[in-house]
Design brief:
The protein has 307 residues and is an alpha/beta fold. It has helices spanning 3-10, 25-28, 49-61, 76-85, 129-135, 138-154, 173-185, 227-236, 254-259, 268-278, 281-289, 297-304, and strands spanning 36-45, 66-69, 91-95, 162-164, 214-217, 241-247, 292-294. Helix 8 links the parallel strand 5 and strand 6. Helix 8 (227-236) packs parallel to helix 11. The longest helix has 17 residues, at 138-154. The chain is globular, with a radius of gyration of 18 Å. 48% of the residues are buried.
Length: 307
Amino acid sequence: MPASRWFALAFLALTAPLSAQTKTIAERLGYPAGTKLLILHADDLGVAHSVDSASLGALGSGAISSASVMMTTPWITEVAAYARAHPDADLGLHLTLTAEWATYRWGSVESRDQVASLLDSAGIFPNDVEPVMKKAKPAEVERELRAQVERALAMGIHPTHLDSHMGALFSTPELMAAYVKVAREYHLPFLAARAFPQWMSSSTLTERDVVPDAIVIASDDVPRDQWKAFYLKAVADLKPGLTELIVHLGFDDSELRAVTVNHEPYGSAWRQRDYEVVTSPEFRKALADNHVVLIGWKDLARAAGSR
């Protein structure tokens, strides 16, 4: 299955708060129980200057409320400089085990010999999730995830949460367990997939884990001429509780077209459309008209009592 298709299917819904929790996330944050909370989140910071510029601009203006960073990518130093200058920015880590673009690739943060099962013979991550599922050793996955977190901390990025690029860490129970283990070691909230409930048993989640009730992400099925309509309907359809809306921002310029060559899903035009939607007056009006409250992952850490 193509990675973009798998990604869209894997994120149909997220784990709801455990039944043992007596208060909703909204109540724990000081809002009425029926409040519609939304994390408006941008993925893939660090992959290109175009992505950084669009995403950090949207984050700084309040058009989005959260973003996550790929520590394996070439433009990470630009994001780190922003993080040091804006210590309150809601920046998580988009933990990365894949490199999907045709000619623009990357490998591990950890030494190649320490994570050999994650890499091909050239020392590069695979371009889809399936090889990770089949070949990645959980111990080496843990090692690489820790290396990505430690690199972020060393560069002055203090992550608000962890999530997974292309959903790779949600692809097997063993990878999910490694992901949750690392998140807990660093006392970080983490994105968790309800699509595979057998992996998210009571032994995996605890009452301290505060995660979204639902998620929205555009898929290949959305007609390109109905892009804004898709997002406006998504906002209108939000239910009480917490939803994360994931977008991919960038500018359709020569740099990003070169990065995403021959890969229309999540490519440069896609990211330009996402940027234009979330920064549009119509989208902002839809949030207000539907009484949506934007929050970030920092707020979830507060709700969970994370230290």
